[in-house]
Specification:
The protein is α+β, with helices and mostly antiparallel strands and 217 residues long. It has 2 domains: 3-85 and 198-210, Glutaredoxin; 91-196, Up-down Bundle (Glutathione S-transferase Yfyf (Class Pi), Chain A, domain 2). The chain is built from 9 helices and 4 strands. It has helices at 21-30, 42-45, 48-51, 72-82, 91-121, 128-150, 162-172, 184-194, 197-210, and strands spanning 3-8, 36-40, 61-64, 67-70. A 4-stranded mixed beta sheet has the order 2-1-3-4. The chain is globular, with a radius of gyration of 17 Å. The chain binds S-(P-nitrobenzyl)glutathione (GTB). S-(P-nitrobenzyl)glutathione (GTB) is lined by residues 11-13, 18-20, 45, 57-59, 71-72.
């Protein structure tokens, strides 16, 4: 069955791989499933045809036969459950890997997204300069906790899993800020993710679409 996902026609990051289609591409590459990509403009994302796939008018979406999914957590979990390569066989280890996926999306990603909000959307507010250090401190607290748990392990819980795929994807968003480099073990963890052949293929595929073409929006 053909798998079709959506991605930005022109990603605002100009090909840095920070938009959320990259994590879906990466999961597809890890589980060796061929896929097609339908590129959508910001305008098309808010039109009825796309809203029928994604109620919030965003990318990525995922279509496979009569199944349509949105939310990268759900898409990656769907792929991990149906194909070998992203979840361990042992039931408890599997549950822990899924826990790390949720931790990435619910506990780590929100504090990182808050930085984007503070730096871009709230830039012109009178209180912006006072709030920014609080936002950065919350990220540092989370990263400190994550680094303590990772220790000198290669991955979060045994072998590479969908939990690592999601955590690395979330942490990558921090790279332009320089905060990730304050935590060398996490920077090395992210680099290990990026060194995986499946990640490289995913990155190259989105680069081919976006290289040097940042969205004006
Ligand atoms: N929770 C959803 C998921 O995980 O799938 C979030 C999906 C989402 O935020 N999609 C964004 C989107 O479609 C693209 S990834 N935005 C358009 C809109 O809401 O109108 C977010 C993103 C955008 C740009 C960069 N960048 O330039 O670095 C990084 C990430």
């Amino acid at each position: 069955m053909t798998i079709t996902m959506t991605a930005f026609e022109r990603s605002p990051d100009g090909g840095k791989g920070l938009a959320r289609d990259t994590r879906v591409r990466w999961a597809l590459e890890e589980v060796a499933q061929p896929y097609e990509v339908r590129l959508v403009s910001f305008r098309a994302m808010k039109e009825p045809a796309h809203l029928a796939l994604h109620p919030f008018g965003q990318i990525p979406t995922y279509e496979e036969g009569d199944l349509t999914l949105f939310e990268t957590g759900a898409i990656v979990l769907h792929l991990a459950e149906r194909h070998a390569g992203l979840l361990p066989d042992d039931a408890n280890a599997r549950a822990r890997a899924i826990t790390w996926m949720f931790a990435a999306l619910n506990t780590v990603e929100p504090v990182i997204l808050d930085l984007v909000t503070a730096r871009i959307l709230e830039r012109d507010k009178s209180w912006s300069k006072e709030r920014l250090p609080l936002v950065v401190d919350r990220i540092r607290d989370r990263l400190g906790q994550l680094a303590a748990r990772l220790g000198d392990a290669e991955w979060l819980d045994g072998g590479f899993s969908a939990g690592d795929l999601m955590m690395v994807s979330v942490l990558l968003r921090l790279r332009p800020s320089g905060i990730l480099d304050e935590f060398p073990s996490l920077a090395a963890y992210v680099a290990r993710g990026e060194a995986r052949p499946a990640y490289k293929r995913a990155f190259a595929a989105q680069w081919a679409v976006n290289a040097g073409r940042p969205s004006p929006g």
